[in-house]
Amino acid sequence: MTISKTFLSVLCILLPFIGEISAQSADNPIEIEVDFASEKGPMNPVWAWWGYDEPNYTYMKDGKKLLGEIAELSPVPVYVRAHSLLVTDEGPRAALKWGSTNVYTEDEQGNPVYDWTVIDQIFDTYIERGMKPFAQIGFMPKALSSKPEPYRHFWKPGAKYEEIYTGWAYPPNDYEKFAELVFQWVKHSIDRYGKEEVESWYWELWNEPNIGYWQGTTEEYIKLYDYSADAVKRALPTAKVGGPEGTGPGWDKAAEFLTTFLDHVKEGTNYATGKKGTPLDFITFHAKGSPKVVDGIVQMNMGAQLNDIEKGFEIVASYPEFKNLPIIIGESDPEGCAACSEADYPHNAYRNGTMYSSYTAASFARKYALADEYGVNLLGAVTWGFEFENQAWFAGFRDMATNGVNKPVLNVFRMFGMMGGNRVEVSGDLAYDHNSIIESGVRGERTDVNALATKSENSASIMLWNYHDDNTKIGDTTSVEMRLKGLVKGKMLLEHFIIDQKNSNSYALWLKMGSPQNPTADQIAQLEEAGQLKLAASPKWITTEKGETILKLDIERQGVSLLRFTW
After folding, report:
1. C-alpha separations of 400 from 65, 70, 132, 182 in Å
2. Cα 43 from chain centroid?
3. What residue spans define the domains of the chain?
4. Where are the alpha helices (DSSP H) in 47-139?
C-alpha cells in the first residue's frame, strides 16, 4: 500500500492516540479499506433486543439496574422477551430456568380467575425505562394444562435438561379458555398502557415448540397459534402477532417445522375461525452456536449459529408472500443454555471475558451480511442473556452482568448504540466472511480481523474486532492498517473506544483482585467502573484532505475497538 505525504502527516498525529505498533506485527499488517461513500443498507438496530428465562428477575435489584443500563445504551426502544409469563406459582417464584406470575387460576366451579399483578410489575419495569415488551404468550397455566402433574420443576446446573419439561409445557385442556386468557391479557394491556403503546409491541406464541418446550405435536402447536393469534387480533386488530419461535432451522426437522407452520399460515384451515389462513405479522426462529472443549481449550462454533440463520432466511425468502415480513431471531447466541454455569459446563468458559465480546461483534456483522444476501427484512436478533440474582461472582452464566457489575460483552452493545445511519463497504485483506465461517469456522492460523462501518449525517464509525474460535493466545496483537475513503473534508473529532485485557473489562480486574467472592464496597466500586466502556486515550481532532486518511493500530486477540468520527 502506497502512503502519500498527506496520509503520513495525518498518521503521525494519530499514532500516539491509537497506540504503539510492535516491530514484528507492523511488518505485515492486515489491510482494510472502508469506503464511507459506498452504502450497503441501513444500520437497523437489530441488536436492541434482549431476553431471558427468569421473568421475576426483571423487578429485582440487579435486574432493574441492568435493564436501566441496557435502555440507556440504545438510541431506540429496546424490546425484551421473557419466558413463563403465564406460569402458575408453585414454590419460590424465581429460580434458574423458572418463573411465574400466577396470572390464571380457576375457582371451584372452573371459572377463570385473572390476576395481572406480577405481569404488570414486569411490564411496568420495561415501560418505565422506555423499553417495550416482546410479549411471549406462554407457558401453560396449571389449571389449563392437559398434564398438570408434576407442574413445577426444580432444575439445577448439572442436572439433565429434560427435567424442566413438566406440566407447564403441555397443550391446553381447553383451547377456547386459553384463547380467552390471551384476549383478556391484551385487553388489560390496552387499559393499562394505552392502545398506541400496545400497538408497538410484538406478541408471539411459546418458545422452541419443535423441541421439549412443547410436549405436544406440531399440529397442536399450530392449533394453539390459530387460537392465540385470533384472540390477539380480536382484542386489538392492529396488534402485531407472529411465530413460530422454533429453534435450529439448520437441521432438517427444524426446517420442516418452520415450513409446515408457514404452509399452514398461507393456506391451511384456521382452527379458531374455520377460514383459510392465519394472521402473521412477523416470523421468528432461533439460532445457536455450539462450543466445546478441545485439548483443554474452549472452541466456539459460530458457523453453527450462522448456518441456522442462513437456513431460516433461505426458507422465509422462498415464500413470496412472506419474504418481506420482519424476521426476529427470537434467540441468537453462542450456545443454548444461559443458566448453565461454567463450573458445570466447562465449554461455557468464554462468557466472562473478551471472547464473548469479540464473538458478539463478529457474529452480528454476519447477520447483517446474511440478511443482505437473502434480501430479507431482519428486524431483531434477541440476545438471550440477562442477569442471575444472588449467584457467585463471575460464575460463568451467559449474562450481561454479575452482581450488578457489567461484563465486557455489554460494552459491545454500547458500541453498537453509537453506530447509526447506513452501513458502508468494508474490503481488504480479510480471511473470513459469513460463507467461509459457515463452512469451516474461524479455525485457521489467521484470526478474523474485520470491521463493520457506518456513516450518518454528522458521524462515522468503525467497529473492528480480532476474533478466533479458539480461546487461546489472549493478549496477542495483530497490526491493522485502515485506509478510509469517503469521509467529509476538514476537521473531525476521533474517539477510540476499546475492549481488551486492560480496558472495559471488569473480569480482568476481578482476577487481578484475586477473584474475591465477597468483594469490599471499594472493590465493587472499582469493578463497576471497570465494567463501563473506556476510551483508549483522549479524543483527538484530526484533519482530512479529500475525505481520506490512513489509520494504524494494534488490536488484541478477542479485542474490539470502535473508532468514531464526528463533525
Report:
1. 11, 9, 19, 31
2. 16
3. 5-42+425-566, 49-416
4. 61-73, 117-128
Instruction: Give SS3 for 7.
Output: helix
Joined together, the cell numbers standing for residue 313 give 432466511
Burial of 556 (0-12, 13-18, 19+ CB in 10 A): buried
Separation CA 169–CA 148 (nearest Å): 9
- For cell 474486532, the residue is 465
Tell me which residue of 193, 176, 200, 175 sits closest to 79, measured CA to CA.
200
Q: Domain 5-42+425-566, what architecture?
A: Sandwich (2.60)
Instruction: List, in sequence order, every residue forming a beta bridge with 81; answer none if it has no partner.
Output: 51
DSSP strand pairing (459-467 vs 448-455): antiparallel
CA–CA distance, 462 with 496 (Å, rounded to integer) = 10
pTM of the entire structure? 0.95
Report residue 146 as a C-alpha cell: 392437559
- How far apart (Å, rounded) are the C-alpha atoms in residues 135 and 282? 13
Looking at residue 26, what is its pLDDT? 60
Find out whether 271 and 175 touch, Cβ atoms under 8 Å.
Answer: yes
The pLDDT > 90 percentage for the chain reads 93
Give the separation between CA 414 and CA 10, rounded to whole angstroms: 28
Q: Hey, what amino acid is at 441?
A: G
Of 348, 278, 281, 287, residue with least CA distance to 313: 287
Q: What is the pLDDT of residues 299-324, one digit of tens each?
A: 999 999 999 999 999 999 999 999 99
Q: How far apart are CA 71 and CA 75, in angstroms?
A: 8
How many Å apart are CA 344 and CA 467, to the nearest integer? Answer: 25
Q: Check: CB of residue 124 under 8 Å from CB of residue 138.
A: no
In the CATH hierarchy, which top-level class contains the domain 49-416? alpha beta
Q: Do domains 5-42+425-566 and 49-416 have the same CATH topology?
A: no
Is 561 in a helix, a strand, or coil?
strand
pLDDT tens digits, one per residue of 184-235:
999 999 999 999 999 999 999 999 999 999 999 999 999 999 999 999 999 9
Backbone angles phi, psi at 257, to 5 degrees: -60, -45
- DSSP assignment, residue 448? E
Q: Which residue, among 464, 443, 468, has the nearest Cα to 452 in the 3D structure?
A: 464
Number of H-type helices and E-type strands within the chain: 14, 25
HEC string of 174-229 equals: CHHHHHHHHHHHHHHHHHHHCHHHHHCCEEEECCCCCCCCCCCCHHHHHHHHHHHH
Q: Going by C-beta distance under 8 Å and a sequence separation of 6 or more, which residues neighbour residue 122?
A: 55, 56, 58, 59, 82, 85, 101
Q: For this structure, is 342 an active site residue? A: no
Strand 383-384 and strand 49-52: the pairing is: parallel
CA separation for the pair 131, 215 (Å, rounded): 32
Determine which one of 33, 69, 208, 548 is catalytic: 208
Q: CA 321, 324, 328, 329: dihedral to nearest 10 degrees?
A: 80
